[in-house]
Amino acid sequence: MEHSYDFDLAVIGSGPGGQKAAIMAAKLGHKVCVIDSQRMVGGVCVNTGTIPSKTLREAVLYLTGMQLRDIYGASYRVKDEITISDLLSRLQHVVGRETEVIRAQLIRNHIELLPGMASFLDPHTLAVESDSTFEHRTLTAEKVVIATGTTPARPKHIKFDGVRILDSDQILALDKVPDSMVVVGAGVIGVEYASIFAALGTRVTLVEKRPQMLDFCDPEIVESLKFHLRDHAMSFRFGEEVASVESSGRGTITTLGSGKKIAAEVVMYSAGRQGNTAQLNLDLAGLTADARGRLVVDSNYRTAMEHIYAVGDVIGFPALAATSMDQGRLAASHAFGEPANELHGLQPIGIYTIPEISYCGKTEAELTGESVPFEVGISRYRELARGQIIGDSYGMLKLIVHSENRSILGVHVFGTNATELVHIGQAIMGCGGTVDYLVDTVLNYPTLSEAYKVAALDVANKLRAVARFTNEMIISEPSTL
């Protein structure tokens, strides 16, 4: 039975995943609409998440002069008294420009942007409640992509007030840089904000119920970050749960399950994210979300309903803007029968702490558990001319290489431009290159990219030593003939 729909594809949410799904479908010649609140064009990524936090980070790095203190002295600062308005002026400019860019991209691709909140009436029909008026619109779509993102998870026993006790979306609403702060949750968002405020001079205490932070990263890299953060007077409380938080006009008291009490000006909760699906009426579409509001999808990002897809943070890990973008492209391609590939094992992870962490591929622990023979090469920024020039004495790059076929199995970077540098290793891995490419190639001098050459030579020397010793053992063995 043939159906006539208003749109070939309706995308709910205009974040990175929704944008790319819509644009991909439009490029394939389909009629597309994107539904999102007028106040949230660009999604959480542009308005409260990725772009604001990374812009804030850049403002902090510049205004504190932190990266140049090894050169000009520990007291070096671009500005002595840094205010919230100093930080937010740059943020507002960037967010405004990003929103304009997204609107222009949608218009250029003839994608209709519908302001409002969407909910299902049936698997192919959506109701759109307008932001600015009391108007309601109903539309039908052959295919649907859900890209609604997430909101901060809020424990019921914590009384958020948006002033002293905040979630990670509210932290940008502070009226001053706090002297002290408790950050609850040592995931990516919590550690990023903790490091940013520590760089501003805030005394930060990071509380995490797990025994370690960023446990999916290389332990050596995480230890380097912890050492650096301790140097900025940050305290860690691992294996601790928060029992209660009390606030007053003067500050807060955080009581831990062990009985410890921490006094601080503000508390920021970053205890996970909740899928933003409560308002969608998923049951009318034949779908259900898990306890955290997330949707389950198959390898093509299709939900239990074959014409409805879901991408981005709403489907869970890795919940990064970069991976969400690719998921949107892949979902739209699959929906309309366009061949598309995904490099599952080579998705880079970037964590914008101060300093940055980024990696691609396997960790030492994963390879050891899989009984894969490997060797490790290390390069430290302090040994590079570029590292001295920019004042980064702590950065490092680690290469993990297969001991037998010399393929690169993992790249782990800590320090300035880590999230940029990782892509060199990612490209070589994706093309099936070996460590010998890095040994033989010429890299610009002086650059941080030289770290690859230094680490590759370190690996090659170790592998050569093992091969030489093995050959000597074979020669020295008595003949069995």
Structure overview:
With 481 residues, the chain is of the alpha/beta class. The model has no long low-confidence stretch (mean pLDDT 92). The strands form five sheets. Strands 1, 2, 3, 4, 5, 6 and 17 form a seven-stranded mixed beta sheet that branches. It has a five-stranded parallel beta sheet with strand order 8-15-9-10-11, with helices on one face. Helix 1 (16-27) packs parallel to helix 8, helix 3 (50-64) packs across helix 5 (84-108) and helix 3 packs parallel to helix 6 (188-199). The chain has helices spanning 16-27, 43-47, 50-64, 69-72, 84-108, 188-199, 219-230, 321-335, 364-369, 385-390, 418-430, 435-440, 450-476; strands spanning 7-12, 32-36, 112-115, 117-122, 125-129, 136-146, 150-152, 165-167, 180-184, 203-208, 235-238, 242-247, 252-256, 261-264, 266-269, 273-275, 308-310, 349-351, 357-361, 374-380, 396-402, 408-414. The protein has 13 helices and 22 strands. Helix content is 33%, strand content 23%. It has three domains: 7-152 and 274-344, FAD/NAD(P)-binding domain, CATH 3.50.50.60; 165-271, FAD/NAD(P)-binding domain, CATH 3.50.50.60; 355-475, Enolase-like, domain 1 (2-Layer Sandwich). Its EC number is 1.6.1.1. It comes from Microlunatus panaciterrae.
